[in-house]
Structures are given as structure tokens and as C-alpha cells.
Amino acid sequence: MEHLHDALARAQAGDRDAMADLYRAYSGPLLAYLITQVRRREDAEDLLGEVFLSAMRDLGRFEGNLSGFRAWLYRIASNRAVDLARRNARRPEDPLAVAVERPGDADPAGDALGRVDRERLWRAVMALPEAQRQVVGMRLAGGLSAPEIAEALGKPAGAVKALQHRALVNLTKALGGPYPRVPGGRLEGREENFD
Amino acid sequence: MTDARAHDALDAALDQLVQGLPADAPMSAGEGLEPLLWTARAAREALSVEVPEDVVRAHLAALGEMEPPVRSRPRHRVAFVLIAAAITTVLLGGAAVAASGSSLPGQLLYPVKRAVEKIDLALHRDPASQARLHLEFAQRRLTELSDLLALRRAGETVDVGAAMSAYQSEVAKFQAAIVTDAANPGYQALLGSVEDQLQGHLAVLSALRDNTVAGPAQTAIQNAIDRAQTAQAAVSKSHNENSPSPVGPTKPPDKRPSTPPSHSPSRSN
Question: Could you tell me the pTM of the whole model?
Fold first, then answer.
């Protein structure tokens, strides 16, 4: 984490390598968040580039620490996602735009979840009401804290905590109950089909 | 457990989760919350995504081509410049009109600035000139907005909503003026020029919105973005309809470029 504090300071001073470090640190979670917001992976990848270019262009005006920087990145991402949604309002929705589309992306976390589980979970997240999906995307995909999400969305931290609680209740119900743990730290997959 | 306490307990456990609690570590967040944590753990794992290498390379290449960020002037210097401008204006008296050019909504000389703009409009009666002037004034409103937001960050109370209403009003007047200029031989060139300017406005407004926390100010900026997009769509449509070349959309409507326009939200006029 310390190296990212340093990278932020260097990036603000114009160091391109530091900007690349920040990109590498935050692009994956940010892409996951964007997919939860815009649904189409290619759109999310385009927005990811826009978000970082926008942030780096305005980095000289940014005042704050690393936590504030993360919240700022997600605020930009959220705004860009809203812009895209407005433009694409009439485009048919494709709910299958999830991370399993590309070979090699399917299970970066060591295959702890099966493909079916991943799709179930993505679909359940996508089916959440917008405000809950936004908080879940930032909290679980982005790894932001509740205060960081509050800063990004301009909501009180208490409201964010309530939203994430409701979202997890809804997700658990949608999945038919909690995911039981099995020995070895693996999560037990539910291999039924669902389409 | 009350709702608030349950929210806090779950939040604390989620903090542990996103900070990388080992998979076999106990997850306890109080009565009834453990099932939610298992769901959260599974969802966090499922939502883990890697950026494809080709995308990483493209984005890093784009970042590498950017101009390095420039540190903005310290807030107190912005305030100092504004105060100095105001004092100079008072002392010089006769130069009030010139000095009003940098005034902001809510400041003493701002009405002078707007009155000068009205005179300017009265002196240019043809629709093309009026359209250009309205667009130029809209650009000034954007510059004022940028300065107002800087003052706001410095702790001053500013009326962003009024500034954005003024912007929207100028864009609406621009749109009305340009419609009446369709018979002019230079209409096509004018449309092309204003299309680019509106694109610049949108880039500036988007950047300002991104730097503003959610609330009335951000809503006001969003409304201005919507207004500018409406005007841009109308101009683009006219441009295509009146273009001598085969008619067709200039850009795919559902695909954004992978790099944004290179406009800065800082002062641009």
C-alpha cells in the first residue's frame, strides 16, 4: 500500500511510470465494477481507459490521499457509466456480459468457484436494484470501504452500510441461501443449469 | 441487534473480507449475519476480473501519450487574484468594464459583464454572429463555473445552479439563433465549427462534474450536460441533413471512443 501512496504523489508530479503503477493496481477491480454498471464488457473496457485518462488529466487538481483518490476514480467511473447508460437507453440489454466471456479471465482467483457459480453470482448481482448494485460493485468488486463509497457517491456512510446489507440479503435470497463452505477453503458450487 | 448495529457489524466484517481475510479464517459478524458474509465472499470471488493484456497495453500507451498533469494554483492564490482584481477595479473606476471581464456571478462587477454582453449582441444582428456570440458567452459561463467551483473548494459559498442556468440559457439562445441562419452560404461551416465547440463544452462539463461531489451542484452540471448534448444532437442532425456528401451518422451512436477529447476543465478562453 505504501508504494501506492508514493505512486500517487509521483503521478501528481507528472511521473508516467507512477501513473502506470496506479493503473495496474486499480484497473482490475475498477473494470469489474464497470461491468456491473454497464453490463457489456467491451463498453466497460472502453470506459476503464476513459476513467484513467480523465483522472490522470485532472490529477494536478486532485487534493487528497490514496483513499480519496480511489473514491474519486470510482466517482468518475460511476459518472461515465451513467453517461453511457443514457446514450444506450434504447439499446437491447445483454445480461451475459460477464467476466467468463474471455478465455483466461474466467477464474483468476484459483478456480475456487466453478463457471456455473460465477455466472449465477454475476446474474444475481446484475439483478439487484441499481443503488444496491452500485454499492456491491464498489464494495465487493472494487474493495472500497463504506466511507470511500460514501465519498464516491455523495451518500451518507450509514446509507451505504444499509444498502450493502440489503443487497447481501437480496443476493443470498436470489442464490437460494448462503454459499456453504467446504473443507480446504473452497466454495461449494451448485452445478445446476439456469438458462 | 438494531438495524444500525447490524449494519455496522456487517460492515466491519466486510472490511476484513475485502482486506484479504484468509479463506479458512472464521467469519463472524453476529447473529444472522454469517450467511450474508458467505454470500459476500462468493460474490467477491466471482466479481474478480482481470484486464486483458491487450487492453492494458492500449490503455498504458494512451496514458503514456498524455501531457503530464500540471499542479493547479493553490487555492489562496486564486482567491488573492480575485480580490486583487476587485480592488483594482474599484481604484481604476473608469476601467470597470474591462475589469468586469473576470468577474463571477455574485460579485460586484458581474452585472456589468453581462450588460456588456447584451450590448455586444445588440451590435450584431445577423443570426450567425448572434449564434457565435451566444456560444462564446456559454463558454464564458463554463469558465465562470470552473472558477466558482475552485472558490467552493476553498470554502466559499457560491451559486453553481445560477451559473449553470445561465449556461443553459445561452445554449438555448444559440440554438434558436443558428436555426434562423440555415439559408446563409456559410451555414455548413458554422455548423461544423459549433459542433466542435459543443464537444469541447461537454468535455469540460464532464470533467467538472467528475470533480464535484454528488449534490445540487453536480445535478446542475448534469442538467447543463444534458442541455449541451441536446444542442449538439440538433446541430449534428442539421449538419448531416444539409451536408452535400452522402448522409450518415458521423460517429457510431453506441460506441464511445477509447480516449476522451483532450479538453481541460481549466480556463479556456
Answer: 0.60
